[in-house]
From TrEMBL:
It comes from the Bacteria. Keywords: Isomerase, Signal. SUPFAM superfamilies: Thioredoxin-like (SSF52833). It comes from Rhodopirellula maiorica SM1. This is Protein disulfide-isomerase. PANTHER family: ANTERIOR GRADIENT PROTEIN-RELATED, THIOREDOXIN DOMAIN-CONTAINING PROTEIN. GO terms for molecular function: isomerase activity. Residues 198-209 have a biased composition (Acidic residues). Residues 16-90 form the Spermatogenesis-associated protein 20-like TRX domain. The lineage of its organism: Bacteria, Pseudomonadati, Planctomycetota, Planctomycetia, Pirellulales.
Length: 359
């Protein structure tokens, strides 16, 4: 009896939740209307590392299931099978959550937080916005006839998309909220959002870039001690993982010491000779932007803070590698990547050019 009780207690302590996802938007909308709840549209895709982590992490947490059950009818939307919805809600990254009312108002549009407590905070913060939007006299009926849709005005570039006509189901004119905007729950504590005005306020620090001429295969170790005055050995890039497999295959594969290249003052190791040759033919594509400096801290706080592989990701626009100092910076970038990618790439290109005059 005692043994059975211990087993039962252990099973209870590690219990996981199973979210009751809906896959049919029309029936989900009917449920939301009947139960006076908001709709959570969760967009995911195949071969999405962060989607898989969310499924195995926050979506198994009882607190997330409880928050959804209380105020939401959750709908899971496969991006590849629903491209019209991806286009309609301007989904640019995965996973993304869009919260709408039954009247068609978009009240939240953000890349899904990975931590369970932050996911719950996102859900809870949207509830009062949803109540206000539903109470608005300007709200349109979500079940409007397709023959007479009422389209929302064109949203501003920085705003989340207002609901558009969806086969006669969604029609509304709500102004969206800024995707990724700072909230009271945000812990990053950045002074300014990146914009042209903030860039001109004070000069940015200069990221260190060694000359491009230093890109060369790493010679085999001789076992001889270093001579006095010999330059310091380069640091290990990407913690020794192969940059080519990360970009081309979305896999973290440890590099081998016999396939090494010194590039921009760092030693890159590769999984194979072919990967090394691929890198040498086009190093820019496989080099982390700003040489692994946290671009969010760089632009927002004007500080050079090294990023970590643990918080590394590829941006969805250029497929370039970015590293961040912590999860808060990484998530902020993922929400607002369009604010940083081009600017960071320009800064890096300039720094490399300055380090290699005449090239």
């Amino acid at each position: 009896m005692l043994f059975s009780a211990v087993i039962a207690a252990t099973a209870s302590s590690i219990a996981t939740a199973e979210i009751a996802w809906n896959e049919n938007l029309r029936s989900a909308h009917a449920k939301a209307q009947a139960e006076n709840k908001l709709l959570l549209l969760h967009f995911f895709s195949d071969n999405c590392v962060w989607c898989d982590r969310l499924e195995a992490g926050a979506f198994k947490a009882p607190i997330v299931d409880a928050a959804l059950s209380e105020n939401y009818i959750p709908v899971k939307i496969h991006a590849g099978k629903n491209p019209e919805l991806v286009e309609m809600f301007k989904v640019k990254a995965f996973p993304t959550d869009v919260i709408v009312t039954t009247t068609g108002k978009t009240v939240s549009h953000t890349v899904s937080p990975q931590a369970a407590d932050r996911y719950v905070a996102m859900l809870q913060s949207a509830v009062p916005l949803g109540i206000q939007a539903t109470a608005s006299p300007a709200a349109q009926n979500i079940a409007a006839e397709p023959s007479a849709p009422q389209h929302a005005p064109a949203p501003q570039v920085t705003a989340a998309p207002a609901s558009a006509n969806l086969a006669g189901e969604f029609a509304g004119g709500a102004k969206g909220v800024l995707a990724g905007a700072r909230t009271d729950a945000m812990t990053l504590g950045m002074p300014n959002q990146l914009n042209e005005e903030s860039l001109s306020e004070e000069p940015l620090p200069e990221p260190e870039m060694e000359p491009m001429a230093a890109s060369q295969t790493e010679p085999e170790a001789t076992g001889k001690p270093e001579a006095t005055g010999k330059p310091e050995q380069p640091g290990l890039a990407m913690e020794g993982f192969c940059a080519v497999t990360v970009i081309k295959e979305d896999r973290w594969v440890e590099g081998r010491p016999d396939f090494g290249v010194i590039h921009l003052g760092k030693l890159y190791l590769f999984a194979s000779a072919e990967a090394m040759e691929t890198f040498l033919a086009d190093p820019v594509t496989y080099t982390p932007v700003l040489n692994e400096i946290d671009v969010v801290r760089f632009f927002e706080e004007r500080r050079i803070v090294p990023g970590k592989r643990e918080w590394g990701l590829k941006d969805p626009t250029h497929n370039r590698m970015f590293f961040f100092a912590d999860e808060a910076a990484m998530n902020h970038f993922w929400n607002e990547h369009h604010r940083y990618t081009d600017a960071a790439i320009k800064v890096m290109d300039k720094a490399v050019k300055d380090a290699n005059p005449g090239t």
